[in-house]
Write a structure and sequence with these properties.
The protein is built from 3 helices and 4 strands, in the order H-E-E-H-E-E-H. The protein is α/β, with parallel strands linked by helices. The strands form 2 sheets. A two-stranded parallel sheet has the order 1-2. Helix 1 packs parallel to helix 3. The longest helix has 14 residues. It starts with 8 loop residues before the first helix and ends with a helix.
Length: about 110
């Protein structure tokens, strides 16, 4: 799950390398200030805003790695809907927070 500076060209390039090497799926938070797209940039799916669609998109996630993003949550306290959108048994790992050098963290992981 990418957010913030992880959606800029340098970090996206590293994320694309990670995805190609491991087969992971890249996704961004629902709302982002800026996503660099187009040309040869790495494509990233956006998490849908409606809770049911977001839960369906995340239903098979076993490991959720967060890079500049927070664990996805539903909007408000919607009756009969989960607050946490990722499966409860999924492993959530904070690779780097939005305050850290996300591009550097992703490049180091891509170089592994």
């Amino acid at each position: 799950m990418l957010g913030g500076a992880a959606l800029r060209e340098r970090a996206l390039t590293a994320a694309g390398r990670i995805a190609r090497a491991t087969g992971v799926r890249l996704m961004s938070e629902t709302s982002n200030r800026r996503i660099e797209r187009g040309g040869d940039r790495t494509p990233v799916d956006r998490l849908p805003y409606p809770i049911d669609m977001a839960v369906a998109k995340l239903k098979d996630v076993k490991h959720l790695v967060l890079a500049g993003a927070k664990a996805p949550v539903g909007f408000f306290a919607y009756p009969g809907k989960p607050s946490l959108l990722a499966p409860p048994d999924s492993n959530k790992v904070q690779m780097a927070s939005y305050e850290e050098d996300l591009a550097h963290a992703q490049e180091k992981l891509a170089d592994e």
